Amino acid sequence: MTQISDYMNSYRATWCPGCGNFGIWAALRRALVDMDLPPHKLLCVYDIGCSGNGSNWFHAYGFHSLHGRSLPAAMGAKLANREQTVIAFAGDGGGFGEGGNHFLHTCRTNIDMTYVVHDNQLYSLTTGQASPTSDQGMETKSTPTGDPDRPLRPLQLAVSAGATWVGRGFADDLVGLAQLYRQAIEHKGFAVLDVLQPCVTFNHFNTREWYAQHTHKLTEQEHNPADKAKALLLAGEWNGKIPLGVIYREQRPTYEDHFPQLAGKPLTQRVAARDVGQLIEQFR
């Protein structure tokens, strides 16, 4: 049986005291232990940003990608070894700003992996500029008179673009977030988990107290995740009570299912051809 200590090393986290990232990672460790998933069976692909600093002290296979590029790197790794559990991580800036194009088209593919976004409505590693999910009118270092742009609703985009599991959690709700992690990881298809994360240093509006007042957990009686029309509405709710839980879920063939070349042994376990001459001749 795996233990929480199996996912930790001797390095100490450098996040600010009180940062929501601590809860995000604690919940992930709890979910992995519940799943009895050993570290060598997990690959974490990180974006640049505060979320990416987890690569330094989370004990599993890891790859630190370029800003906004964690998804294509994770997708390549998953195609090479479909038996590996692959989780890509990003912040709301890199995930929906620089990486917006990758996000949109990875949803379309429905590849069998998980995308976790640490969503604090800012570019916090660069000291607090507005991000795609910042509230309109929000005063930041890059928008001192208020952000003129309407915020992106990424989960609406995920549902409409083709992701087959879409959910939202809260960094301080370790039990509920761990349950969402497990559902997202075990889902066969592309799972998007948006995690609301307090930034105690730069975001003094969306505080943990604010989230406590403006979020609520979805119940089975309240919402059926198979109801796509309602899922789109729930994914856009923000100014009232922000829904937490599984917003959308469906089953359909994954990206890998369309390629018979990927059947059988994972590509990483196959013996590569020593002589590529015959292969080259086929394309002359």
| Order of neighbouring strands in the sheet with most strands | 2-1-3-4-8-7-10-9
Beta-strand residue fraction: 15-25%
Give a count of the beta strands, DSSP E runs of length 2 or more.
Answer: 10
> How would you characterize the largest beta sheet?
8 strands, mixed
Q: Tell me the CATH architecture.
A: 3-Layer(aba) Sandwich
Helix/strand structural class: alpha/beta
- What's the helix-strand series? HEEHEHHEEEHEHEHEHEH
Question: What value does the Rg take, in angstroms?
Answer: 19 Å
CATH third-tier fold name? Rossmann fold
**Ends distance:** 53 Å
Regarding CATH, which class? Answer: Alpha Beta
What is the quaternary state of this protein?
single chain
- Helical residue percent? 25-40%
Query: Which stretches of 5+ consecutive residues score pLDDT under 50?
Result: none
> Count of helices?
9
- Shape summary: globular
How many domains comprise the coordinates? 1
Give a brief outline of the structure:
This protein is α/β, with parallel strands linked by helices and 284 residues long. It contains nine helices and ten strands.
Set down the secondary structure blueprint.
Blueprint: H1 21-35, E1 42-46, E2 61-64, H2 70-80, E3 85-91, H3 92-98, H4 100-109, E4 114-119, E5 122-123, E6 129-130, H5 154-161, E7 165-170, H6 174-186, E8 191-196, H7 208-214, E9 215-217, H8 228-235, E10 242-249, H9 277-282
Parallel strand pairs: 1-2, 1-3, 3-4, 4-8, 7-8, 9-10
Antiparallel strand pairs: 5-6, 7-10
Question: Any overview of this molecule?
Answer:
The protein is α/β, with parallel strands linked by helices and 284 residues long. The protein has one domain (4-282): Thiamin diphosphate (ThDP)-binding fold, Pyr/PP domains (Rossmann fold, 3-Layer(aba) Sandwich). The protein contains nine helices and ten strands. The chain has helices spanning 21-35, 70-80, 92-98, 100-109, 154-161, 174-186, 208-214, 228-235, 277-282, and strands at 42-46, 61-64, 85-91, 114-119, 122-123, 129-130, 165-170, 191-196, 215-217, 242-249. Strands 2-1-3-4-8-7-10-9 form an eight-stranded mixed sheet, with helices on both faces. It has a two-stranded antiparallel sheet with strand order 5-6. Strand 5 (122-123) and strand 6 (129-130) form a beta hairpin.
